[in-house]
Amino acid sequence: MTARGTGTGRRRMTGIVVVSALSAGLLAGCGSHSGSSADSTGPLKVWVRGSGDSLKAYDKIFAAFTAKTGIKVQPYMTLTDFETKLSASASAHSLPDMVIDNASQLGDFESQGIIQKVDASSVPGLSALSPQALSSVKDPKGATYAIPFSAQANVLLVRKDWLAKLHLSPPKTWADVERVAKAFTRDDPDADGKNDTYGIDVPGTTANGYISWWWSSLLWQAGGDYVKSDGGGKYTATLDSPQAISAAQEFEKLACTDKVVQPGMLNDDTTAGNKAFQTGLTGMYLTGPYAFATMDASPVKGKYVAVAPPAGPGGSQTLAEGTSMYLMQGAKTDEAEKLAGFMITPTTQQLGMTAVPTATVVRLPVTPGLNAATAHSDDPRWGLAATVYQKDGHYEYDSLPNWTALRQLTSDDLNGMIAQCAPPAAAMKKLNSQFQAALAAQGVAG
Amino acid sequence: MTTETRAPAPTRTVAAPRRGRGRRALVPWLYLAPALLFFAVFRFWPTAWGIYLSLYKVRPYLGNQWVGADNFVRALHDPALRSAVWHTVVDALATVVGSAVAGFALALLLEGPARLLKLFRTAVFLPVVVSMVAIAELWSSLLFPGRYGAANSVLHLAGVGPLPFLSSPHSALVSVILVQVWKSAPYDMIIFVAGLAGIDRELYEAASLDGAGLLQRLRYVTLPALRPTTTVVLTLGVIRGMRVFTEIYVLTNGGPNGASQTVVPYDYLQATTNNDIGYAAAISTLFLLITVALTLLVQRWRGRRES
């Protein structure tokens, strides 16, 4: 018994030694990060969140930059787990020089401490950009933390063949939307004898906060907002205002009372939303101008029109988004600023819209005076998108320390409200107090 | 002189085998080294690192902030996590029982050496090898909640529906469970088929001679003989059920209104969308502790039964 006991003990010990040796080796390996930042020499390392042909477009832009300045650029592009990879490089303290990512990352990047404040005077042309685009790169205190590169605003896509069949015109107001949506749902606009069409397309899943992303246009059109600024970078949640409640009521009317939204919308992301519009399940879709290319590659091509978002009681504001350039900590700042300045020249902006027709990395230019419609192969829909952006584009509160978490919170509550067809006023009051608590947790509550 | 030279000899003879034994003891570890190294890099180290992170507010660039047990306290008071745990338990149990019963029924139907049965078994086994993402796409279409969805069209013929399936908080979890049973029942079937093949035919013959009918043979011969197989099926099923991710993530992403949210996708949401890695690590750590505790309990229970 004893002999066996000690034998097992020794074996166990050997095991522990082997395992700890392995772990120690690993610990040493993982602890050996140099702690240095991006190389002070060598090419500019630029990470781009994107995929497919976009890399070709960026390659052309960077080649033009190298030809002009002699500064080499080493791009790295990925869409999968972009932020996770960036986190890994942040913990290794070897960030790239520049990151080109959604404008909505601003607050998150700033609170992580991985981006530099931008000195407006050292990026040529920055102060001449469109005021709206500039507003998207400022933090709550008014400091600039990125350089805008591209912008866009959501427009309403409507099936024109369905409108013609039912003798309707494109909606201009919420009341029109309700009327057209009901007709699209009940009057068999595709004339197949089946009651299988729906008026409105909503990507209503909580994933990536899509339902809040879609509903935000409704919120602003109702004259409401997520927060009001108290000055000094502080905010108070306003999701229980009468306007915000009416935006929630309108959503619930469409989904629960009129039942004119596609069934299954509570689980649908934008891919499913696109599919619903492409396959003739839905007839109206509020989405970004990048959807033109997606829709035109499907049977719905030529069967729809793009119109300005409908006006609610508070106006016709619509969700605006963008792509921004972030100068990272430890970057070769001078060279990165030169690249940023180059990216916002009219020539580069034009190149971004035209270099690769399948990947217009500049959707709407941030530089005033360029014609988006002409640049996008004389497509008047882009002219409309540009007008809508200038007149009614409204960005989300991307500069808050963690807007994604706030958007997620809104999404969870909206999704729950619609799933249960619960009273909107109570749902919004509950959301508002949660939102206020989250603002406080992020240190920006007024 | 002779005695002097002889004297140390016994110690040498004792020492030599000891060294040999030491070397021999090391040999199995050397064989195990590649696997151990693999596990150390991809399992033990990330686990340890996760436990470490659970005690911090994780800030990759600025340096992590020590928060002690805060993340754990928050996890214990998080109503969304609580409902995710509940859904995970319901999902795991229902899927395990559902697949075991369906798998057993399939095994009874399709057990045997005939060529045609082999063909059927292969056909039935297909869902197991198809990627979950593809299955989710397929079932999302089949379970389309409108009147003209595939499943609803069939139900309409029977005068039922249209049912909302994945799109209603009341039926989302049940629908996800059905898809999981559909996918994992054939896996259980294969294990049961192997178990059935191992049962001595003479037992059936003896039972028949004693006048046992079909159901009695099933009850008194087949089921007792399949007890070890059933344990394997249930254990594997529970493990699969506890860590359910892809099914939920792709079919409903936990919705609507969190009605089908389970622990692992919820944890993933905290780490990615909410960028709260410390909190996500705390949830994972709690989950690890619960899993370890459950495993120990099952082992003890089995140990007792065997003794």
Secondary-structure blueprint of this entry?
The complex is a heterodimer of chains A (446) and B (307).
Chain A: H1 2-31, E1 44-49, H2 54-69, E2 73-78, H3 82-91, E3 98-102, H4 106-112, H5 131-135, E4 147-153, E5 155-159, H6 160-165, H7 174-186, E6 198-201, H8 210-221, E7 227-231, E8 234-237, H9 242-257, H10 270-278, E9 282-287, H11 291-296, E10 304-307, E11 318-327, H12 333-343, H13 346-354, H14 372-375, H15 380-392, E12 393-395, H16 403-420, H17 424-441
Parallel strand pairs in A: 1-2, 1-3, 6-9, 11-12
Antiparallel strand pairs in A: 3-11, 4-11, 5-9, 5-10, 7-8
Chain B: H1 2-6, H2 9-53, E1 56-57, E2 65-66, H3 70-76, H4 79-110, H5 115-129, H6 132-142, H7 150-157, H8 172-197, H9 201-209, H10 214-225, H11 227-242, H12 246-251, H13 263-271, H14 277-306
Antiparallel strand pairs in B: 1-2
Keywords (chain A): Cell membrane, Lipoprotein, Membrane, Palmitate, Signal
Protein name (chain A): Sugar ABC transporter substrate-binding protein
Organism (chain B): Streptantibioticus silvisoli
